[in-house]
Amino acid sequence: MFSFEIFSEDRTFFGSHEDGGKLLEEKQFAQAETLAVSLLSINPSDSKAEFILTRAWIGLGREEIKKGNYARAIDLLNKAALKWPFDRDLKKEIELLSMISSKKYVPPDSSLNRKSSNSQAVILLDPDFFHSMDDLKSELHSILSALREFDSLHCESDSFSKREYLFLGIISVLALVSFLNLFLSFLLWKR
């Protein structure tokens, strides 16, 4: 493990992978990004620094969502998606954010945007929300296919044959006799 200094804007940062993790935990994503870039400038194949950089981009992107700056958020999340191409949640988040930003453009300085849209956008971009939506979608598809199958069977069995009516009548008579037997037994037991 090594440690070094980063000089930027009259500030001195000491940096290591642990410091990057702490910065991410403290939600200081801009500083974590700076630290990761400096770590990568020393060792371009440093996977931990790439991880810190990607997490910083995701954090910065989500902060931009809260500010209402959807274009910047999409750019940052796309950078992260290039590093993590198999992260489906991140891709869905970017797609949803693109849909939100294309459907209605609200200037980032708007107070209305800060009060209502951002809280909804953050809720919609939650990975658990995506998982539950996928589960719900698959359940709805299975229910729909079962209903279609039942409907096709129901249409085929609409016309009862004479034998089926006979069996239905016999079962109904037996059920009526059983119910009367139960009712009379109950009356005799009460006396």
UniProtKB/TrEMBL annotation:
Keywords: Membrane, TPR repeat, Transmembrane, Transmembrane helix. The chain crosses the membrane at residues 165-189. Gene3D superfamilies: Tetratricopeptide repeat domain (1.25.40.10). PROSITE patterns: TPR. TPR repeats lie at residues 54-87. This is Tetratricopeptide repeat protein. It comes from Leptospira santarosai str. ZUN179. The lineage of its organism: Bacteria, Pseudomonadati, Spirochaetota, Spirochaetia, Leptospirales.
